[in-house]
Design goal:
30% of the residues lie in helices and 24% in strands. It is α/β, with parallel strands linked by helices and 267 residues long. The chain is globular.
């Protein structure tokens, strides 16, 4: 592992951002200083593109964004590099399965064109700074008019991980259900993850995975932890993430990202 990685990717919620959704001046400065060392900087998040732009602008040094856990990949100026949408058959079959297995499930579609179409009874606990205006409809399946990147599932009284367990063995071919990082399970095309998204960026820039560092805290970060040459979990992270991390940083509310980057730059 080189002294300075060639690519560094940061999860946002629970990692780069504090509990109140703010980006601390110390973390901002550390990311800018590591960029000065020649690193490519990426955000790798479950958020859609429009909920990432404020942080991109605040940092001022981001090169790429892996959004919706790999379902869309963007340059920092918003230029779309790749979409990983489900087929129409996969979209409808997976949603119908969720409705069959999870009582009163609320569905939310992240559309390939950037729109969000939600069942009227879909509820969530997204971060307060999410900048999205969904279209709410009585039946989201009937309202679909284009490709879907991800389904988010509001499982009501069923715990998210239990819902994933119930659905996993019955998923339509070419789809998978997994934690989204937003307290809701999500359905995506098989193989789409933060790790696959970062892999696309690495190939584009001629960077080997062994020269990449990743920072994260949630179950949706596991694939990128397994992909990268070095992984850093936040102290506030999920136990499964902590167990596979190369290093553990102080929590996001203790500017853990900055602590690790400052140590790296100090040599």
């Amino acid at each position: 592992m080189s002294a300075f990685p060639e690519l560094i990717a940061f999860d946002m919620d629970g990692t780069l951002l504090r509990s109140d959704g703010s980006l601390s001046p110390r973390v901002r400065q550390a990311v800018r200083e590591i960029k000065d060392q020649g690193c490519i900087i990426a955000l790798s998040t479950g958020r859609p593109w429009r909920a990432v732009t404020e942080t991109v602008n605040s940092l001022g040094v981001v090169d790429y964004c892996v959004c919706l856990n790999g379902a869309s990949i963007h340059k920092a100026d918003g230029k779309l590099l790749k979409l990983n949408a489900m087929t129409e058959e996969q979209t409808r079959a997976s949603a119908q399965l969720a409705r069959k297995l999870i009582p009163d499930v609320g569905l939310a579609a992240d559309m390939a064109d950037g729109r969000h179409i939600w069942d009227d009874h879909f509820t969530h606990d997204f971060p307060a700074d999410f900048s999205m205006i969904p279209v709410r409809v009585p039946d989201v399946l009937s309202a679909l008019d284009g490709p879907v990147l991800t389904w988010l599932l509001d499982c009501k009284d069923l715990a998210p991980m239990k819902a994933i367990e119930v659905m996993s063995s019955q998923m339509p071919d070419g789809t998978e259900v997994r934690p989204s990082g937003l307290e809701t399970p999500e359905i995506v095309a098989s193989g789409v993850s933060k790790g696959s998204g970062l892999g696309e960026i690495a190939v584009t820039n001629g960077i080997d995975a062994s020269k990449a560092w990743v920072f994260g805290d949630g179950l949706n970060d596991i694939e990128m932890f397994l992909w990268a040459g070095h992984s850093v979990a936040m102290k506030n992270g999920h136990p499964d993430v902590l167990s596979i991390a190369g290093d553990i940083a102080p929590s996001h509310d203790e500017d853990g990202v900055a602590v690790v980057l400052e140590h790296l730059m100090a040599g």
